[in-house]
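Quick one before lunch.
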Amino acid sequence: MPYHSTMTSESRVALVTGGNRGIGFEICRQLAQTGVDVLLGARDLNKAKDAADLLAAEGISVTYRALDVTSAESVKDAVAGIERDKGRLEILINNAGVFLDKDGTAETIDLDRVRRTMETNVYGPILICQAVVPMMKKQGYGRIVNLASELASLTDMEGLYPAYRMSKTALNAYTRVLAQELSGTGILVNSMCPGWVKTEMGGPNAIREIEDSADTAIWLASLPDDGPNGGFFKDREPLPW
Ligand SMILES: NC(=O)c1ccc[n+]([C@@H]2O[C@H](COP(=O)([O-])OP(=O)(O)OC[C@H]3O[C@@H](n4cnc5c(N)ncnc54)[C@H](OP(=O)(O)O)[C@@H]3O)[C@@H](O)[C@H]2O)c1
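Model of the NAP complex:
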């Protein structure tokens, strides 16, 4: 029986990829604080456990799983485990990401670096969406949030970081296509930029604290049924494509 319109947030199950540190960790913390049943995914099981232990020390309970988004087998195992243990999944946060081109230009970028970036930032989210959408369709409910970046905006391509920019633009395209295909199923798919955040990726000069980076993800994860679908947001406001 579809239970989307009557479900309380307490009963929702969420998977967050790359949940062991940075923005993903903060999203896990804040989702769990709203009563969501959070599955913290990390490619290294020990890191996943350490992160869950850190939250437990704050009185926040999450479960954790090994999940390497670049491995089809790991994605399959993780989603099968969720189906077995929870029987459902309402929220997917595709947060895991890499930024491999601190140097390099579009003219010189090493193709291997582009491929490795695409594996994590684009093919990973695609694999996971393909694994969880059938479950969400059965439920008649789903919220998928893809962590893109302002650097993905085609209207603002100022050069540099070519692999990262192209990967996030491709992720945005996937968001749009999937959102259109799933229109009317109760599943909403959106992309977002968390701002420039003080994480390992963002570096110490970033302007946003980690605690302030999760708000838009939490908002998109809890959209009402008539919420936006196929959008791109920062601070809950639309961003140009
Ligand atoms: N920080 C910013 O300013 C900023 C701005 C715009 C967008 N974003 C996006 O926000 C997301 C989170 O960024 P962040 O700043 O928190 O980055 P971060 O501190 O570098 O953390 C990245 C996370 O992704 C995980 N990860 C990388 N490859 C993975 C894989 N193959 N499978 C599973 N997990 C993997 C990392 O796990 P390990 O610990 O195992 O490496 C880590 O947990 C990314 O998608 C990023 O592109 C960040």
